[in-house]
Amino acid sequence: MKPQELLMVKNLNVFFPSPKGDIHAVRNISFSVGKNKVGIVGESGSGKSVTGRAILKLLPSHTRIRADKIEFKGENLLEKNEREMRKIRGQGISMVMQDPQYSLNPVRCVGRQIKEAYLAHRRVSKKEARNKTLAMLEAVRIRDPERVYKLYPHEVSGGMGQRIMIAMMLIPEPSLLIADEPTSALDVTVQLQVLAILDDLVTQRGMGLIFISHDLELVSSFCDEVIIMYAGQIMEICCAKDLHKSCHPYTRGLLNCLPKIQGNAEFLPILNRDEAWLNASWPNGSCPNGSFTK
Question: pTM of the entire structure?
Fold first, then answer.
């Protein structure tokens, strides 16, 4: 049975104006997220991050967002003004940005920044907010939270900075978390630690997760469902466990470009892109595993 839907996106389009005309960055994409982990993968420029930011209306003011529906818990986000969206951001939907060094305020200690995220959505005393912050730092497996609370962003490592960002986004107790490349700047060992933290917290709190990444293998092993994007469109939506069975040429091309651990004397293949993919209408069930959806 499909998990209870938290977010429903239908025919989302995003346009950026330019001197040569509008750039159609996201084109008629539709998907839903419940209390499960949904991965969005694709090349740089495919529209993954723009999609996440469009849901929360975090794009520049000159951007045009059009959709039939962006519904969160039955509320249409398209009808919300900026003041109403501020109540949704954090407490309803949180977003972990890609690089904590650019997302954290460099002149404030990290503990104060996490505490502010909690006070923005809860009417509690500063002492209670501080205790909650320390508990959240401990929840993301940071040793000696009292010491880390007083550190500034430049004094923490990349892995610890990413944990601090996760703590900041989860402290308001949202129902849905959007994680935009949360492990891209980390080494493999720290990646696994951060993913384990995300997995534990999302599972324990019964949250939904949108995990944006370039790494197909990582997403297929971590998420329940995978959305493959190309040139602003969704090429395919499939169960993560069946990703290797995909028959869409773009997904097959991405999978074939992955290096194999056993090694190979041949050069890795180059992905050949086909403009026909953008106009193709593949019927559901045309793949052997029936995973294709468009």
Answer: 0.87
